[in-house]
## 1
Amino acid sequence: MIGGITKGSDFAGCVRYALALDEPWKEARLLYSEGVLTDTPQDIIDGFECQRHLNSRVRHWCGHISLSYSPKDADRMTDEFMVKLALEYMDKMGIKNTQFIIARHLDKEHSHCHIVYNRIDNDGKCVSDSFEYLRNNTICEEMKKKYGLTFGENKDNVKTQRLKGRSKTRQEIYLAVQAAKRTAKDWISFQRELAQKGITVRKKLRRGTTDVEGLSYIKDGQKFKASQVDRDGRCSYAAICNALDRNKNRQTKPQSPSPKPTPTPIKKAVQTGAEVAENIGNALGGLFQVGLGHDPEEEAFIRQMKRRKKKKGRSL
C-alpha cells in the first residue's frame, strides 16, 4: 500500500482524470462518494466548486490521493475492500467532514484507486496538510501490517531497463540522487555529480524569503518535484542536507594519532627539505592557494528572489 498526495486548484481536471473521462481506453469506475451529486461528472465538479468558495484564503483547494497496492494482493482487492481501506486511510489522515469521491482504475497490473476531496470542508475550514507526507508513510505502514498487505519492493532494486518514459527518467533521477548523497559533502559537489548524469537541481524558495521549501529535478526536459521522485522524502531538501552534513563530519572527523617512527638520517634530510619548501610557500603569501568555491547560478537565483516583492494574502 502506497499513498501519493498532490494538491491543486483544478477540480475539473482532477475529476476527469480520476474518472478517466479523457482516456476512453482506460477502465475506471466510481466506487464511493460523499457530499456531491453523482448523476454526471459535471455535477461532481460543480459540487466541489460551489463549496470551495466558502474559504477564499485557500489557494490549493483540490486534494488528490492515489492509493496503490501490490499485484500480489490483487485477489483481495474487491471494490468493497478498497473502499474500506480508503475510508480508514482518510479518517487517519484527518480528511473528514468534507466532500470526496473514490474512483478505481483498472489499467495497471497493480490495484489502485484515486481519492478526490475538497480541502474546504463543510464548515468552510481548511483540511490540514501539516506533516502530511510523514503521516501518510506512517499510516500506510500501519495499515499494511494490520491487514497483512504486501510490502513493496525496495525502490533501489527496481530494474531501470524495464521502465519507460517518465517512470524510467524518475527512477534514473532517484538512483543518481542516492549515489550523490553518499559521496557529496556540499551542495556544489552534489549538483556537480548530478550534472554529470544530465540532471539539474532547482531550489524553490518560500515567497519573500531565502528559505528553501522544496526541490525539483530536471532531466531530458522532464521536471519532477522531490516528492514525485520519492514519496518517502529521500530526495527532499532536508534529507539531502542531512546526508551532506554526515559526509562532511565523516571526512573532517579527527583520527587518533599513530605513534611516529624515529626518523633515520635520510628521512631527517627529506623532512628538512620539505620544511624549507613550506617556508618558501608561506613567504610567498600562499600564492598558489585556492579560495573557497562558489556557485554563481545559486547566488544569482537568491538575489533574484530577494528582489521579488512580497505578495499580499496567505497561501494554504
Note: Residues 265-306, 308-315 have pLDDT under 50 and may be disordered.
## 2
Amino acid sequence: MNNNILVTGATGFIGSSLVKKLAETDDKIFILVRKSSDLTSLTDILHKVHLVYGDITDRSSLDSAMQGIDFVYHSAGLTYMGDKKNALLYKINVDGTRNILQASAIAGVKRVVHVSSITAVGIAFNKKPVDESVIWNFDTISLEYARTKHLSEMEVAEAVKKGLDCVIVNPAFVFGAGDINFNAGRIIKDIYNKRLPFYPLGGICVVDVEIVSEAIISAMKKGKTGERYILGGENVSYKQLADTISRITGAPRVHFPLPFWTAKILKSALDLYKNKNRISKLFNMSMFRVASHFLYFDSSKAIRDLNLRYESHEHSIRNAYEWYRERNMLN
C-alpha cells in the first residue's frame, strides 16, 4: 500500500537528500514549502513530488497541508551559530516543531520523525564519545541554537506523552554532495581558498549526507517511539579534518592551532581590519567557542537499531569536494 508522506525542510541540505531518496519509492511525496522557497536543490525531482504551501511558524497553514498524510519527516529548522537571531531561532525551532506535532496529532498522522541535532545531545568534555543517554550540557557554552534544538526535543517528548508516535534523529556534522549553502562545507571552501590560516582545538563527528538520509528513512520504519538516535561517523579533531581537506583539495596545510582565549584577542584586532573578506566567515566567537570543544559521539545505537552505515570522514570530504568542483562552486 502506498503512503502519503510529508517532508518539511525539503529544500535544505539534509531535507533535499531525504526527498530524493523518498522520491525513488512508490509513496506519494509532499513537500511543505513557502511561496518564497528556493527549490534549486530539488530541480531534478520536482516532477516526482507534490508541493504543499504552508509555513511551520504559521499554525493555521498546517492543517490543510496535513490532510490525508500518513507519515511526516520534520527536517525544517534554522541553523545559526550566533546571538543575533535568538527570537527567530525560537520561533522556527521550538514553536515550529510544536506546530508540526500538534497538526500531525489532529490529522491522525501515524508517525513523525523529528530531525534534531547533536547540539541537543551534548559535549564530550573528556573527549570520550557521548551517547544518547548523556544529560544535556550544551548550556555551559550558551548557544541559543543548541538551546532551541534541546527545547524542540522537549516538545517531542510532550507530544509522545499525549499519544503521538515520534522518533528523534540527531545528525552529527554532515558533509557531502548537495550542500549548496555551504553548511559544514564552508570549511572545505575556506581551506581551499586559504581563508582559514588556523584551526580550533576541538573536534567533531563527521557523517555523510547519504548515510544520514538513509538512516532517517530507517528511523521511520524501525525506530522506537520516543527514542533518539545519534547519526554520526568518525570522530576527528579539527587538525585532522583540516589536514584531510588540504590533502584532498591540494590546498596548503593549516599549521596554526588557535586556543579560544587567543581567538578572542585576535577577533578584536580583525574587527578593525578593513579587508575582512580574506578571513573565513566561520571565525565568529559563538562558532569558535563550540569548535574549541569536542563534539565526539557514539552512534552504536543507530548502527544496531537502524543499520546506520559507516564511512571514513575522508570519504565524505571527498564526496563534497568533487561535487563542488564539478559545479565550479569553490571560487
Note: DSSP finds eleven helices and twelve strands in the chain.
## 3
Amino acid sequence: MPPALERPLMDAAFLANPYPTYRALREAGPIHWREEFFGGAWLVTRHTDVELVLKDPRFSAKRTGSWVKDREDAPGEFKGFQALFARALLFLDAPDHPRIRKVLNAGFRPEILQGLAPHIERVAGELLDRVAHQETFDFIEAVARPLPVRVMALLLGIEQPDDDFMAWSEHLASFIGEPQPTRAQARSAQTSLLAMGLYFESLLALRRKTPGDDLVSRLAQAQARGEIEGGAELLAQCAMLLFAGHETTRHLLGSSVHALLSHPAQWQRLVREPTLLPGAVRELLRFESPVQYTGRRVATDMVLHGVQLRRGELVLAMIGAASRDPARYPDPDVLDITRCHGPSLAFGSGPHVCIGAALTLLEARIVLGQLLDRWPGLSLAEAAPRWGDTPAYRGLVALPLRRRPAHDDHWASQPQLDAIGTEARRATALATQVHS
C-alpha cells in the first residue's frame, strides 16, 4: 500500500493538503473501502466514477442515518433533528426531490439573480470599506464569512440577519462535514437546526399574511398550492438554503483569494485581463473544491469495478479527488485561469447539482472584481494558510491579507482598473453561465 494510504485519511497532513492522498488513491485503484468514514464506506476518486455515483439512480441520496444514531441510554434524543434533517432537498430522491426542486428553482431564476447583483456589489463594497484603512486584515472574518449570509438573507427576505445565522450554519457544517461526529457536535447541530426551524416558522407565518417577492414567500405560496408539504418539509428547505448558501460560498471566496495570491502571475494576469474573471472563478472552483466529498447509499446490489456493492452501503464520491484527476484535466495540480476543459464536479452533477451554483459564482466574481479594482497590489500576510479541520468542506479559517500603502496600491493602469470594475458589473449578465 502506498505510504499516503497507510495512515488515517483525516490527520493534520491530509487536512492541510489532501491532494497527494487523493492521487495515491486514484493510482492504487478505482474503489477503496475505508473505515474512517462513518464506520465504513466505499471511496471513488476518479472523475468518471465520481460522476457516475452522482448521476446514477442506483445510488440514493437518502443517507442521513449515517450521522445520527441514538444511544441506548438516550432513545429518541435526536428525533426532532432527524425530522428536519432528512427532509432537506439534498437528502431526497425522486419523486420528492424533483417536486421540491421545481419550487426552489423559481427563486434562482436569472432575472432574480440579476436583480440581486447590485445588492451583492453594495454589500461587498461596505465590507471592504470597513477594512480600507487597515494595512492588514483577515479576509475570512471581514468578507468571506459575513457576505454569503447577508446575500442569502436578501434572497430569503430576511431584513436583519444576525450572527446567530452564521453560528447555526457553522454548527451544522461541523457536524455534516465530520466523518465520525461526536455527541457534542450532534447536539450543537440539533440545537442550531431546531432554532432555524423556529425562526423560519415565524417568518413563514408573517409572509403568509404579507407576501413579497422573496424565496420564503414563494415557498409559503407553493405550500398553499399543494406543491410542497408544510411542517418539516417546508422548514427543512428554508434552513438548508441558509446553511448551504453560507458554507459553500464562504469557502470558495477564501480559497480563491488564497490561490490567486499564492500564484501572483495569475493574479496579475487578471488585473491585466479582467475578461478572464468568469473562467478564472470556475478554475478556482476546480482547484480547491469547497465540497470535497458527498455520499450516496447503494440502492440495489451491484458490481462496480469488480467489487460487490450491497444495498445500503455508503459510497463517497470524492469530488476533490475528481477535480485533480489527470485523466480529465491535464496538469491538474496547476492553477491555470485560462483552462478550457469543461466544468468540474465541484457543484455536483445530475439531479442534485447545486441549486445555488449561479449565485455562488456571481458572488465570487463580484468580490474578486472589487478586490482587483481596489487593491491590485494585495498580498498574503502569512505564508502558511490555516485550513479548517472538517474534511468534507475545504476552507480557510483565517486569511490575513496585506494591502500596499495607498500611494503604491494602484500599480495597474487606470484603463485596466476601469476594465476590472466593468467586468465585475458584467457578472450580472453572466450569472446563468453555470456548468449545470
Note: The radius of gyration is 21 Å.
